[in-house]
Amino acid sequence: MTRITKAVFPVAGLGTRFLPATKAMPKELLPIIDKPIVQYAVEEAIAAGITDLVFITGRNKRAVGDHFDANLELENQLAAKGKHELRDLVRNIVPRGVNCIFIRQAEPLGLGHAVLCARPAVGDAPFAVLLADDMMRGARLPTAALVEAYDRDPRSYLSVSEVSLEEVSSYGILRPGPGGTDGAQVEVAGLVEKPAPQDAPSRLASFGRYVFHPEIFDVLAALGPGAGGEIQLADAIDALAVRGRVGAIRNPSHRYDCGAKFGYLTAIVDTALEHPEYRDRFRALLADRLARTPDATPGKTG
C-alpha cells in the first residue's frame, strides 16, 4: 500500500474578508502572534508524515513561496549578529527532507480546480489537502487521524465536526451512510453543499482537512462547472460517496476559522494565553482591560 507523503495547500484565494490588509499580503501569511496561519497547516502536515508540500498559488501569492524558501542573506545577517536561535528558527521553517512545490492556478475556477491543478505533482499517489483558513490546535490533529484511517482502509476521508442547526447552511453537510453518525468514524453516503436547515441530512460539517485516493482526479476532470460556475470539490466528493468510497473522521482537535475575522481573533487570543513567553502578561492585560469601566479608552490609564 502506498503511504501518504504528499499534501496540497490551495492558497490562491483573494482573502476579500480581510481587505484592506490582504490587498498586498496573502491572507495565508496573516500572523498568529509570530507565525503565519499557513505555517500551522504545514507543521500539521509534516507531523503526519508528509514530505512533499504542493502549494497551489495565484496572482499576488509570491510571498507564500518566499516564506517557505531559504533566505541566506537574512540567515547570514542573524548569524553575524550572534542571533543564532533566530537564524535556526528561520532556517527550519521547512525541515530538511521536506520539499516545497509551487503550481500556479491560472484562473480562479474553484477549490476543485485548485486540487486538480496538483495532479502533475501528485500523480497516482494518495494525498492530503489542507486549507490554511482552518487552524487546528490540540494534542491530536486531524491530518494524522485521516492518514491513519487511509492506512487502514485506502479510500477518501473527510474531517468533520458537528455544528448547530443554524450553521449548516455555511458548510458541506454529510449525508450519513449505514450506521448513522455515532462513533469516531462515519460512513458517507453523500455531501450536500450548504443546505437549508430544514433540508440538512445531518449536522456533521466537512472542514478544511481531507485525504484523497488518487481516483478523485478523474472525477474532478470529468466534472462540469457547478455552483458559481466553478469546479466544486464538494461535487466530486459527493460522486465518490455514492460509490461507497468516502469515510469521515471526527476532528479530534479544536478548529479556528481564521478565514473569518472573529475566528482569527479567537485564535490569536487562545494562542497568546498558551504562549510560554507572553501568557502571564497577556492574562494580566486581559484582566486589566475587563476590569475597566465600559467607557474606558484602551491605552488610557485611570
From TrEMBL:
EC number: 2.7.7.9
Protein's name in the database: UTP--glucose-1-phosphate uridylyltransferase
Pfam families named in the record: NTP_transferase
Organism placement in taxonomy: Bacteria, Pseudomonadati, Pseudomonadota, Alphaproteobacteria, Rhodobacterales
Family: Belongs to the UDPGP type 2 family.
Entries under SUPFAM superfamilies matching the protein: Nucleotide-diphospho-sugar transferases
Keywords associated with the record: Nucleotidyltransferase, Transferase
Principal EC category: transferase
Keyword Nucleotidyltransferase: yes
Molecular function terms from GO: UTP:glucose-1-phosphate uridylyltransferase activity
Organism: Rhabdonatronobacter sediminivivens
